[in-house]
Structure formats: structure tokens, C-alpha cells
Amino acid sequence: MTTACNSGNSQGNNETAANDSASAAVQTADAADFKSIFDGKTLAGWEGDSVHWSVEDGAIVGTVTPETLLKTNTFLVWKGDEPKDFELKAEFKIAATGNSGINYRSEMFPGVPHGMKGYQADIDGKNTYTGQNYEERGRTTLAYRGQKTTIPDAPGQPERNAWSAMVVDGSVGNSDSLKALIKAEDWNQIHIIAKGNHLQHFVNGALMSDVTDNDPAHSKASGLIGVQVHVGPPMTVRYRNIQLKELK
User: Fold this and answer.
1) Tens digits of residue pLDDT in 183-229
2) Which of 34, 80, 206, 239 could form a disulfide with 245 if both were Cys (CB 3.0 to 4.6 A apart)?
3) Which CATH architecture does the domain made up of 37-246 adopt?
4) Higher pLDDT, 1 or 8
5) Strand 147-151 relative to strand 206-213: parallel, antiparallel, unpaired?
């Protein structure tokens, strides 16, 4: 019996090792598909107001000081492409007073220097909104943290900072429980998946919001990527390890 038991363990160990090896190979291949869009040293390939954007210690740094308070939200925009279907991963660290976000499938907003319009993975220092889907200069909130929503092909308008036609289909988790997974004033990972009309925001591996946008009058299938500093008190936000994988 001892011999048979050892033989079974050996077979099980071999199967486990094979599974681990296959999983590692998939993860390696997946990681290889991601391409860095920030070199960690300069703002080459990015465009924004140098008063507010710089590079320090391998991170893009967005700052607002008492002397540089903003009248409108301003963005640092990646000029390398206007991706359609993609995954974007980045790490962020934001001060308690901060308000920021990552825009995607966006366009420049006429008449506003370095202004953008489009989908945003929201980020704020108090983590009130971090993870939600907010459309900058558009329909406003498309899903609060914890919500799975559909935006129908129907008339709507912003009401109390959310799109009135938004339909809540379900939950991806309790908002407060998801908030507890986000580290205050420390590094967190954000992961955006945009495929077709399906938009998902993850923070530290947890799905925070899920939107299906069926509104042809307002939805965007491709566009620019940018990071934001928001009107408000002095603040600092940092982004690093920004990586993009375009989906076929």
C-alpha cells in the first residue's frame, strides 16, 4: 500500500507540475503581448502641459500646486495610436486630495487646452469613485463601482452626475467591499479591457465596473488614451508600468 500510495503521489505531482508549467507558459505568452507605452524616463510619445506633467523615479507625475491651480481638467495624451479593442494595465498612486483617471477611446475636446472627451476609468484619492466608468465631457457616470450596466439605444441626459438612460443589470460586488481592496496613497494596479461595446475596469485584480454600451449616438469604438489631473485642490498622481495589448 505504501508503494502504491507513493506511486499515486508521484503521478499527481507530475500532473501538477505539468499544469503549472502550462499555466506559466500561457502567462508568459500573455505578458509578451503587452507593450510598454511609457519608457519610464521621458514623456516621449506623450503630449501635455509641462507645467503639470513630469517624470520622476520611473513614473509619470501629474501635479497641481497652489500656484498652478486648474480652471479645466487637463490631460497627458499618448499619441502613439488610437486603439480599438485592447487591454491596458498600469500602476497608479494618488494623494488623498487627488482626482484623476485614465481616458480611453477618447478625443481631444475643442477649445480646451489638453482637454479630452470620452470613457474614463475613474481614480480619486478618497477612493469614492475609483474603478467606476465615467464619460468625461459626455454622458457622465455609466457605471458606479460595483455595478454591471447597459447603456441602451435610447434618449438620455446627465442627472445627478449619471446618465439617466443607464440600466443596472446586476452587481459585480459590493462597492464598499471593493473599495477595501484599493490601497490609499499607495501603488495599485488598474486593468482596463475594452472589447467591442463591452468595457470592464479592474483594480488589483478585482472587477470594479462592467458596462455594455449599446448607444450608437454616443459610444466610441476607438480613440486616444490619456491620464488626467482634475480641477480642485493641490494634488499629485503617479502612473508607471503602462502597458497596452491590442486585441484581435
Assistant:
1) 999 999 999 999 999 999 999 999 999 999 999 999 999 999 999 99
2) 34
3) Sandwich (2.60)
4) 8
5) parallel
The yes-or-no verdict on residue 231 having pLDDT over 80 is yes
Q: How would residue 157 be classed by pLDDT, with cut points 50, 70 and 90? A: very high
Q: Which 8-state DSSP code applies to residue 54?
A: E
Task: Give yes or no for a contact between 208 and 146, defined as CB atoms under 8 angstroms apart.
Answer: yes
At 7 the three-state DSSP class reads helix
Work out the number of other CB atoms within 10 angstroms of the CB of residue 167.
13
pLDDT confidence bin for 248, thresholds 50/70/90? confident
CB atoms near residue 189 (< 10 Å): 13
* Distance in angstroms (rounded) separating the CA atoms of residues 87 and 245: 5
Pull the grid cell for residue 95: 494623494
CA distance 227 to 7: 56
Residue 96 backbone zone (phi > 0: left; psi -120 to 50: alpha; other: beta): alpha
**Domain spans of the chain?**
1-33, 37-246
